[in-house]
Amino acid sequence: MKKFWVLFSLFILPLVFYIFLSKGIYKYANLPILTENVVDLIVVSPVTTATFSEKLTVVCFLGSDINMAKASLFNLNQTIYKRYYQKPFFQMVAILPQGLEKEYEETFKELAAFTDTGKWHFIYASKENTNLLFDSFDTPFKLDENGYSEYAFIVDMELRLRGRKDDEDTKGGKLYGYNMKSVSTLKNKMKDDIDIIYYQLKKSAEKQARRKREI
């Protein structure tokens, strides 16, 4: 019996650990692409300098109900933005209804009072262009009558919507967006998925560096 446990600890246990680790790394290293060819921000607002290209973007649609928008905005800011705004390539984009600039002014002042908002982009767009962008995500969701969605979305550097295909809490497994009303969803799902993309970027950069050294 003693011999068995010695063999188990020397050979079988390390093998089990390796298999577990390999599966974990594989899962961590791959965040599915759910939609390609997302419309870029210049199409939504010709005056904006923001773009999805070469950026890792969290985008939300806040609508004309300021109170509802404010709660979602502050949840997203506290849980996601403050964690990543110093990371390379990262930005946050809020799509807002054209004509409500003054109505949102006080909300943004409150946000800026305790947050460096340098990586936030607030883009005012017509209803048609807002719908154009939202529809390009090709999700099962719809904007409400105020132009609001309770979901925030991840768009990568190549204008692709990223998410999950095996989410245990979603019918069919596909997680297109992350509920901004749920701090636990933002902490436990969106944060993890953004970390995966940064892991992918790190590994890609390391691979390119190795290739350059080999040349």
Helix- and strand-based class? alpha/beta
CATH superfamily: Glutaredoxin
Annotated CATH architecture: 3-Layer(aba) Sandwich
What is the total tally of β strands? 7
| Element pattern in H and E | HEHEHEHEHEEEH
Rounded to an integer in angstroms, the radius of gyration calculated over CA atoms is: 21 Å
Measured distance between first and last alpha carbons: 55 Å
- Low-confidence runs (pLDDT<50, min 5 residues)? 16-28
Number of domains: 1
Average pLDDT works out at 89
Proportion of helical residues: 40-55%
Describe the biggest sheet? 7 strands, mixed
CATH fold assignment: Glutaredoxin
How many separate helices?
A: 6
Beta strand %? 5-15%
Task: State the shape.
Answer: globular
Tell me the name of the CATH class.
Alpha Beta
